[in-house]
Amino acid sequence: MIVKKSPAEIEKMAAAGAVHTRAMKLVEGKVREGVSTAELDAAVEKLIRSAGAEPAFKGYRGFTGSICASPNSMVVHGIPGPYRLGRGDIISVDIGVVLDGWVADGAVTFAVGPVTPVARKLLEVTERSLFDAVEQCRPGNRLGDVSHAVQARVEGEGLSVVRSLVGHGIGRAMHEDPQIPNYGKPGRGPLLEAGMVLAVEPMVNAGRHMVRMGDDGWAIYSQDGSLAAHFEFTVAVTEDGPRILTPWHEVIGVDRRAAESAA
Ligand code: MG
After folding, report:
1. How many angstroms separate the alpha carbon of residue 251 from the centre of ligand 1?
2. How many domains does the chain fold into?
3. How far apart are CA 59 and CA 50, in angstroms?
4. What is the distance in A from the centroid of ligand 1 to the CA of 229?
5. Weakest-pLDDT range from 41-50, 81-90, 246-255
6. Does pLDDT of 206 surpass 90?
7. Is pLDDT above 80 for 260?
8. Cα 261 to ligand 1 centroid, rounded to whole Å
9. Is 88 left (phi over 0), alpha (psi -120 to 50) or beta?
10. 64 CA distance to ligand 1 centroid (A)?
11. Sequence-separated (6 or more) residues with CB below 8 Å from residue 138
12. Is 59 within 8 Å of 72 (Cβ atoms)?
């Protein structure tokens, strides 16, 4: 059952999302060679708690971090720890925030200094596929339109959608119905209605689509060892169209995008 949210409830989720956005901006400022993922985690937890919120992931099924930090071929669910970022790494950071009982969830994959052309393309295509999907989050569309938008972009660029991991509805619980695959047929699946809130999260491998679980029982890696990226928004379906509730794109990568558009 898909739980719809009232406009007032969506505002509360947006308030959680505002804390989320500040946390992601903090991460962007700290991502550099030599920083450990535990240090990123500690900084984010401090910011979230000082905002009167709680990290959604900490304690979830025993997860020990406030963020998931997943470098290079790790797709998602990396436990923060002693790993130190290296020049040329990519690092996926997923953050969940609970404020007044409402959850906001979002992820960004960052480049650590200059990265290979393969890595740059992977980040750009995965982020673009997320925006393609958001565009479909409108009343009257179907969930398959959202899923298909990701798949079309990713596969059109010769990359692979991870099929065994999905996005999800979100609200008072981090994971609500529906599950949101990153592949599917347009015009299929549940009808989207105003008040639905979706965590849309393309997970993309530069190589093939299969994944494997790591020894810690959390980390998910691309099976072929290829680089993997993850971008995520919490997005509300409203009468006025999609509303991004975790708008990290307004603060992250702004300098890079400006430089690219000037070039
Ligand atoms: Mg999520």
Report:
1. 20
2. 1
3. 18
4. 14
5. 246-255
6. yes
7. no
8. 30
9. left
10. 17
11. 192, 237, 241, 242
12. no
66 found inside a domain: yes
The answer, yes or no, to whether residue 254 has pLDDT greater than 80, is: no
- Rounded to the nearest whole angstrom, what is the distance from the C-alpha of residue 66 to the centroid of ligand 1? 13
**Ordered DSSP codes for 76-141:** E-PPPSSPBP-TT-EEEEEEEEEETTEEEEEEEEEE-SS--HHHHHHHHHHHHHHHHHHHT-STT-
CA of 94 from ligand 1 middle (Å) equals 8
Rounded to the nearest angstrom, the distance between the alpha carbon of 232 and the centre of ligand 1 is 7
Of the candidates 26, 57, 21, 60, the residue with the CA atom closest to the CA atom of residue 43? 26
2 is a domain residue: no
pLDDT tens digits along 92-106: 999 999 999 999 999
CATH at 139: 3.90.230.10
**At residue 158, does pLDDT exceed 80?**
yes
Farthest CA pair distance, the chain: 48
Residue 133, domain member (yes or no): yes
Q: How far is the CA of 149 from the centre of ligand 1 (A)?
A: 18
Please report the pLDDT score of residue 255 as a whole number. 73
pLDDT for the residue 14: 98
In a domain, 1, yes or no: no
Q: Please give the distance, rounded to the nearest whole angstrom, from the Cα atom of residue 97 to the centre of ligand 1.
A: 11
CA of 262 to the centre of ligand 1 (A): 33
Q: Answer yes or no: are the C-beta atoms of 89 and 167 closer than 8 Å.
A: no
Residue 221: which H helix or E strand, with range? strand 220-222
Per-residue pLDDT of 57-87, as tens digits, reads 999 999 999 999 999 999 999 999 999 999 9
What is the CA(111)–ligand 1 centre distance, in A? 21
Q: Which domain holds residue 210?
A: 7-262
